[in-house]
Amino acid sequence: MEAVSYIILIGSTLLIVSVLTSYLALRIGAPLLLIFLGIGLLAGEDGIGRIAFNDAGSAFLIGSMALAVILFESGFDTKLASYKAAAWPAMTLATVGVAVTTGVVGVAAHYLMNLGWWEALLIGAACSSTDAAAVFFLLRVGGITLRDRVRSTLEIESGSNDPVAIMLTILLVEAATHGLASPAAIVGELALAFALGGVMGLAGGWLLVAFINKANFETGLNPVVTLTFALFIFAATNVLGGSGYLAVYAAGLYAGNVKLRGALELRRFHSGLTWLSQIVMFVMLGLLATPREFAGMLLPALGVALVLIVVARPLAVWMCLLPFRFSVRETSFIAWVGLRGAVSLLLALVPVLGGLENGQLIFNTAFVVVVVSLLVQGWTIGSMARALELIVPPRRGPVERVELELPGNADQELVAYTVHGKSPAARGQRMPRWAKPSLVIRAGAVVPLHKAKPLQPGDHVYLFTPQHRLPLIDKLYGGSRALDQSDREFYGDLVLSPDATVEQIAEMYGLPLSLSNARLTLSDLLRNEFGGSCELGDRVRMGGVELIVRDMDEDTITSVGLALEPVRVTSRRRPLYQRVTVIGGRLRGWWNEHAFRRWKEREKLRARQLAAPPPVAEPPREERVESRNEA
């Protein structure tokens, strides 16, 4: 009992020290994961803690569970919009890039460390995976905002190259211990692992979403359900012969892009759990390392790290991104941001567990490579982004978002803004009704809404809004850029006359239309929608477009805007499948459009018939015969 208490005390102390030292890392901009690794080294048998820990099996078990949690959160936090922007280049880096990095680093390890080819390639495979958490933490600490395509490429690559590196490592260990299988067998095994991993991941993600949405659990129980499902999907896929790491990533990707109850709370939970997993992995791997064994292999390992940073990673990135029209600066930055982390150390344990003769040497080499990567690349990400001029102004949006579980399909969020000094709200611009705050806090005190006008810079405003309004409200309160009459997202792409009829607009743009609204003017349609009282910025959906109150003279609408592609928030969850109700709605819309066109054709035909002169009646046939005889 006393020994158990000592173990718990030591473990919790290491975690507390890791969390407290993270404050120092934030102040000096140091790679936080390097701090965790250093704490493990200091607490190890060669450090001041003198803790002897050499159980590679337990370390691999704990690390595998932690990595499954990290990959689930990585998929859960990845939006399909990112895949749309950077799917092909990122997946090319995650597959071809991993293979190229493995080969180049393997050649360097073979000649620098006098290892056999299989063991040298194992070093390359272990060091071929990048660490997403390290990259994006350093970007946030440095206040770095990258272009969407560059950031999406790094995000998707970091989340999807782990399964590829893991499968490659396992195949190389099998080749080193039992000999190389036939190429057909290798291709078949890889295809089975990835196919089964993808299918199991999507099926598990669908089951997880259906379970949470239908069961209606207590809110605090949902994180427990997602965690257990993630571990179950990971383990079950591995048992069946698939890639559990790919499966858990795919399950998180699915769950994060469909409607899921309590999604924001789940994101917060898994974000914190991911940091805990990172801390546990790095501290544990630091304890497992034995620095006194580094003396005889330090210089060759430093040479391998140098080849990885200067040759292997840049070569792989340039080869993979050449067809995708990245600029030289963007390619250079992606090549530099190739931080190695806990996954590399975890993969380096596989040769140790496989009983390879130089297994411990492979782990020590990977340990040195990770430390050098965090020191050299991790400390220079910010300066490299600034030197390559890739930093863009940050988007100012809501400082807090709370998803509300309302009855039915009333998807609303409570968002909080700090009014920016250059925002339209602070300049006294009139706010649309859908952007008016529900609560204003000024100088720490609640201000009644009728006394809060005009809003002042620094005011905290709270308002309820649907998700698709968020980008527009960002412009009003966040001051991401000036909002004027040329702002297409807010006022629409085209300017229409308020006297134009709905029928004319529907015919011009091929929109579905209810026949009861065909003769209404746009002004009347908007007034009917809002009970006769319209305000600037009011919007009405009409098929695939939106009609917007663009300008008003007192209570009269003087111009109407037409948004051809209504803006949608970039983080909006997009379903991977279409429900029956959605398909039915689209079919009804198609039928209404078809019926409207047929009605228009009948109306045009009737109009032509009314305008045509009456036909001249021909004489009977007998009269025509008599007239010919007389002639």
TrEMBL record:
Q: Which UniProt keywords apply?
A: Antiport, Cell membrane, Ion transport, Membrane, Transmembrane, Transmembrane helix, Transport
Disordered as annotated region, ranges: 607-631
Task: Give the InterPro entries listed for this entry.
Answer: Cation/H_exchanger_TM, FAD-bd_PCMH-like_sf, Na+/solute_symporter_sf, Transptr-assoc_dom
What is the taxonomic lineage of the source species?
A: Bacteria, Pseudomonadati, Pseudomonadota, Alphaproteobacteria, Rhodospirillales
Source organism (scientific name): Azospirillum lipoferum (strain 4B)
Tell me the GO molecular function terms: antiporter activity; flavin adenine dinucleotide binding
The Gene Ontology biological process terms listed for this entry are: proton transmembrane transport
Q: Where in the cell is it found?
A: Cell membrane
> What name does UniProt use for this protein?
Na+/H+ antiporter
Give the Transporter-associated domain ranges. 487-566
User: Transmembrane segments in this chain: where?
Assistant: 6-26, 33-53, 59-76, 88-111, 117-139, 190-212, 224-251, 272-291, 297-321, 333-355, 361-381
Ranges of Basic and acidic residues composition bias in the record? 619-631
Cellular component terms (Gene Ontology): plasma membrane
For whether the record's keyword set contains Transmembrane helix, the answer is yes
- What topology in the membrane does the UniProt record assign? Multi-pass membrane protein
